[in-house]
Every structure is written in C-alpha cells, then in structure tokens.
Amino acid sequence: MSHSQTLGAGDKLGTGDSYLTLDILPPELAAHAFDRLRDEVKWDVMHHRGGEVPRLVAVEGLVGDDGSIPIYRHPADESPPLHPFSPTVDEIRKAVEKVLQHPVNHVLIQLYRTGQDYISEHSDKTIDVVHGSYIVNVSLGAQRTMTLRMKRDGVPAAADSANPDTPPPPRTTQRIPLPHNSMFVMGLETNAKWMHGIKQDNRFITLKSPAEMFQAGERISLTFRRIGTFLSADQSLIWGQGATGKTRETARPVVHGVKESESLVIAFGAENHQSDFAWDEHYGMGFDVVNFKTKDDEEQQ
Ligand SMILES: O=C(O)CCC(=O)C(=O)O
Ligand SMILES: [Fe+2]
C-alpha cells in the first residue's frame, strides 16, 4: 500500500473520525458567500515569532448577553480581536451546525491570497476546545489541498530499528483536495495523532485546474470550533475548560506573567508532537494566561 493517498468525500480520513462533505451551503449562499465575506470580514494580519503569518485572518464568535466571549488560545504573538458573528458568517455557522449536530461559538477566518499563502503543518491546540466536539474547515473559492500526516511518534518502528542504517518508516500521508463549498470535519483523535497543513502551491497558473483558479486563486477558509473557555466583557476575568476556574462563579483574573505563558507554550509544543498527548496532565489544571510569545521554531496554530 502506498503511504500517500489522495482522498475525498465518502472516505474516512485521518484515524477514521474525520470526513469531507461537499455542498455544505445552499446554492444561493454558496454563490455569493466568497464576495460577501471578502467585504464583510475585518481582515487582519497576525504575527508569529515577530513575523506576519502568510495569510490574512479574522476572528468572530458568539458574544454572551453579559458581553463575555469565547477564547481560543494558540501560539501567536497576539490574536486578532474577536468580533461578533457577521451576517454571512452566521449563515454559514447555521449550515455547519446542522451537519455537526453540536453548536460552534468561535471561528477563525483566513484568506489565502495566492498559492503562495499557506499554513504550516500543526495540530490544533485543544486546551479550549470542548472535549468530544469536532473542528471544521469550510472552504470557499480556490481549491487547495489539505495534507494530513501521522505524527512521527505514532509510526510503528521499523523491523530493524536497532540498525542505524535502517531508514525511518514512512509516515502515512493523506492529501485531501478542498473544493469550493466543502467542509472538512476533523475529530479530535485525528487532530491528536496526525498533523494537518496546507502547503504552498507554486505551480504555473497554466497548470492549475479551473477549481484551483476559482475566485482568481483566492481561498477563504472558516475554522469553526466549539470553545469552552471564556473571557469577561472587559477581558479581566477568565473561566471554563482551559482556565483554573472552571465556572463563571469561580472566574479568576487574567494573568500576564512570562512564566505562566512559558509553561502553556511548552504544553502546546507537546501537543504538536505527541500522538498520545495527555490532555489532563498538561492542560487539566488550567491556565489563566491569554497572550504569549512562543520560543518554538515552528508555527503552531
Ligand atoms: O485553512 C484551512 O482550511 C486550515 C486552517 C487550520 O488548520 C487552522 O486554522 O488551524
Ligand atoms: Fe488547524
């Protein structure tokens, strides 16, 4: 069997808890969503290790009656501000929830401006992602390819691993083309055992298919998540799954210390590399830190 396969709708992806769905949006919305989002979304740049990430980003979410907001923490120098769900994003959210059968309250929206824009291979950081929920990527515009690759430590050792001349066993890779109006649904087990990313596509335009050149080669993705950690309206208090105070009543002040931030960043690094990442051990006690610099070399979304 080949260690690299191209898969799509109808296939079980990753460890089997993930799949691709086509035609996620009704036709009218699918036809106009890209242009509407391009205008409607407050696009921002994001920095990682002092450099701009190679795509535009925006964050939207469900704002509570008391002004509280969900927070998704991942290594970035600073996350863009969360805006309330805008009209088109909210319509897409409803279509997503219908398929998923659980609510989502947070979305990272990204604009891949050309084939040169990309996202490095990573595992999503799950400190704030509700256990048992699914993470979804809705794709609009130009088709790009998601690469799923087993984490190195999850690959069974080679037969003759004691011999230093034995090449390391290949890591199974799945390539999943993401056409306009599709939704990639990722289970948390796949997220734990595999990494995912979207490589640059530097082929000449003449070699690209119409699907790959749709919307002049621009792609918008919407990564919806069900988040279980929240900030108060004035962003002074934090509570929930990933915080030390697990309920609104036990909310604690947001922490800005370097030390707390470093230990969370170390846990993020472990989640990126360990297929048997022990969530309770690394994240269970909770972290009240919100912004952090990372020391790791890789981009880790
Ligand atoms: O653009 C995509 O579909 C992937 C985005 C992603 O993996 C992420 O934001 O964590
Ligand atoms: Fe991701």
UniProtKB/TrEMBL annotation:
Question: Key word Oxidoreductase present in the record?
Answer: no
Matching InterPro entries, A to Z? AlkB-like, AlkB-like_sf, ALKBH3, Oxoglu/Fe-dep_dioxygenase_dom
Q: What terms describe the molecular function in GO for this protein?
A: dioxygenase activity; methyltransferase activity
Which PROSITE patterns does UniProt cross-reference here?
FE2OG_OXY
Start and end residues of each stretch annotated as Disordered: 154-177
Q: Does the keyword Transferase apply?
A: yes
A GO BP term here is: DNA alkylation repair
Provide this UniProt record's keywords sorted from A to Z.
Methyltransferase, Transferase
Q: Where is the Fe2OG dioxygenase domain?
A: 103-228
Q: Which domain of life is it from?
A: Eukaryota
Q: Name one Pfam family in it.
A: 2OG-FeII_Oxy_2
Q: Which PANTHER family match?
A: ALPHA-KETOGLUTARATE-DEPENDENT DIOXYGENASE ALKB HOMOLOG 3, ISOCHORISMATASE FAMILY PROTEIN FAMILY (AFU_ORTHOLOGUE AFUA_3G14500)
- Tell me what this protein is called: DNA oxidative demethylase ALKBH2
